[in-house]
Amino acid sequence: MRASVVCMALALNVSRAQAQSTAPSSASAQRFRLANGLDVVLEAQPRRAQVAVLVRYHVGHRDQPPGYTGLAHLVEHLMFERSAHGPGHFIETLEAMGASEINGVTSSDFTTYYEVVAPHQLQRTLWLESDRMGHLLARINDGSLTSQRRVVINEDRERSAGARFTFLRAMREQLYPAGHPYREIGERHEDLEAISTANIQWFHQRWYTPANATLVVVGAFDPVAIRAAIERDFGALRGGSVPARAAPAAITVDGDRRVTVDAPVFSERLHVVWSTPPLHARGDAELDLVAFVLAAPAVGRLRRRLVHDLDYAEDVSVGQSSEELCSEFSVQITATEEHTADELLPIVEQELQSLRERPVSDVELVAARRSFVDHLRSNSHTVLNRAQQLARYARWSATEVDLTERDAARYESVTALDLQNAVRNLLRSDRRVVARLRRSRSAPSQGTVASIESSAGRAAVTVAGGRR
After folding, report:
1. Closest CA to 280 of 249, 324, 245
2. Helices 362-377 and 404-412 meet at what angle, rounded to 10?
3. Which CATH superfamily does the domain covering 255-462 fall into?
4. Quick one: which of 244, 338, 340, 448 has the fewest CB in 10 Å?
């Protein structure tokens, strides 16, 4: 499960019988590829009152050249500008048509655009999407670039303000080596200021092509008519090619790496992070279940101990954040004001050691499996959730459509021994990064890296002026 936050999985939990009864039949879905390479997934659900349209381009932050942080995000924003034949700004046009949930999201691995429309507006929406896929650049100029650059910079200022951003950046720099596409977070403003219209054109022409995209349509529509509309509007576009993506630098976390950031915060934070197997790989589902066992509300071992029994923590969050190249398993804890991050780490290690030494109970294993399986099967509750799920499955298989049951089987097949081995082999104390956000009245508001250490024999680094 991508970005598997346990609380969210529980909040969306429904009974298995209910989820199965609402899931669409795979017979209602079809998948085909246009001559120009566009991958198309259609799932007709006649009883729906709406239709979700989703276009996913297989490009993200990881594909930005060095020195061009923010380029992928900036292109995402420009995709909402008026395209060559469009009547106006993309969002304003769709809103006038009654569309909802209009958005674009750039992640490490892909960029997704989606909207939910009434069935009678579907063909016009598909035409608008095809127009910005094939004809956006005709209207992009220095004025639109300057305007959207300002928006992106302001968004980044809001996101990166405060010590938390400094803390997360320092942690990721210890987890990922220089040159790894997942290492950088945020956008460097000097990079954004240097991006030109020529850079935008190059990026769009390289990555925003039919051959590098997946179109998903879910909801109430006539499959024959909509397939014809897609072939007419998207089939006329030049296909392009699927660009080669750079191979990532190898991740080797040698030893118990520790980074401390000092900041004038009320509550200290502890993050313990491991590099783990990528989405759908062996170990990915197992670690989702480990996260549930540790931090599920009311029953999670670590949450119950730190929040309820000891009153050491305000909040405990554990998750396996799954990505295409590799994933991150993280334990994130906010201490109560009376306690420190240093007091939390031994308890985290005790609970992990307990999982290494003894298999989880049948009750814990069944509850963990059920949470994730029911979440997968409940994704048909909205047309947009279902479209997002099918887009993810389209990257898992080049030909199949609905992989819900295969996905569910990943969790249902996990045994207590599998879970125990995953903790032993993947969550080792000598292959992790421990990051502390430490309270210091004298530190600047944005925080400062106070020390970087490793038990693997590297000399400890103490930043001048960083100690309390």
Report:
1. 324
2. 170
3. Metalloenzyme, LuxS/M16 peptidase-like (3.30.830.10)
4. 244
Asked if residue 292 lies in contact with residue 367, where contact means CB atoms within 8 angstroms, the answer is yes
Instruction: Provide the terminal-to-terminal Cα distance of the chain, rounded to the nearest Å.
Output: 40
Q: Which amino acid is at 88?
A: G
DSSP code at position 361: P
Which three-class secondary structure state does DSSP give residue 33?
Answer: strand
Give tens-digit pLDDT for 237-257.
Answer: 999 889 999 878 778 888 899
* pLDDT score at 10: 38
- Phi/psi zone of residue 284: left (φ > 0), alpha (ψ -120 to 50 degrees), beta? alpha
Please answer whether residues 136 and 240 qualify as being in contact, where contact means their C-beta atoms are separated by less than 8 angstroms. no
CATH number of 24-233: 3.30.830.10
Pairing of strands 100-106, 111-117: antiparallel
Q: Is the pLDDT of residue 366 over 60?
A: yes
Q: What is the mean pLDDT of residues 390-406?
A: 95
3-state secondary structure at position 215: strand
The per-residue pLDDT for 184 is 87
